[in-house]
């Protein structure tokens, strides 16, 4: 019994060290097409984290379950680093 409690505690600590990424309920990561401070980018981070880092000048324009799909969407919008706006 002590061994299983020790194992459960060790696994809990191991899971706490895993970095958080944008993972929807289906368990697969999502890649967001974001406008960050007026420039297009692809990020796997959640929008709340990006807003915290960049002071709120962030909006999600699109998303895709694959990195390739997200990059294709960015290319259609002008490419990484192209100008963008969060105002609709």
Structure at a glance:
With about 90 residues, this protein is α+β, with helices and mostly antiparallel strands.
Tell me the layout of helices and strands.
Layout lengths: L1 H15 L14 E6 L2 E5 L3 H8 L3 E7 L2 H10 L12
Antiparallel strand pairs: 1-2, 1-3
Write structural notes for this entry.
This protein is α+β, with helices and mostly antiparallel strands and 88 residues long. It has one domain. Helix content is 38%, strand content 20%. It is built from 3 helices and 3 strands. It has helices spanning 2-16, 47-54, 67-76; strands at 31-36, 39-43, 58-64. The protein has a 3-stranded antiparallel beta sheet with strand order 2-1-3. Strand 1 (31-36) and strand 2 (39-43) form a beta hairpin. The longest helix is centred in the N-terminal third of the chain and has 15 residues, at 2-16. The protein is flat, with a radius of gyration of 18 Å. The model is unreliable at 3-23 (pLDDT under 50).
Descriptive key words:
88 residues, three-stranded antiparallel beta sheet, 3 strands
**What is the CA-CA span between the terminal residues?**
59 Å
Number of helices: 3
* Mean of pLDDT: 78
| Count of individual domains | 1
Give Rg in angstroms.
18 Å
Model regions low in confidence, pLDDT < 50 over at least 5 residues: 3-23
Beta-strand fraction estimate:
15-25%
Decide which structural class fits the backbone: alpha+beta
Overall, the morphology is flat
Q: What is the strand tally?
A: 3
Share of residues in helices: 25-40%
């Amino acid at each position: 019994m002590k061994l299983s409690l020790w194992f459960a505690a060790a696994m809990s600590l191991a899971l706490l060290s895993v970095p958080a990424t944008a993972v929807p309920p289906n368990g697969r990561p999502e890649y967001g097409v974001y406008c960050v401070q007026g420039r297009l980018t692809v990020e796997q981070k959640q929008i709340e984290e990006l807003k915290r880092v960049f002071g709120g000048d962030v909006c999600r324009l699109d998303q895709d379950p694959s990195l390739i799909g997200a990059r294709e969407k960015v290319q259609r919008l002008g490419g990484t680093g192209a100008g963008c706006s969060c105002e609709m």
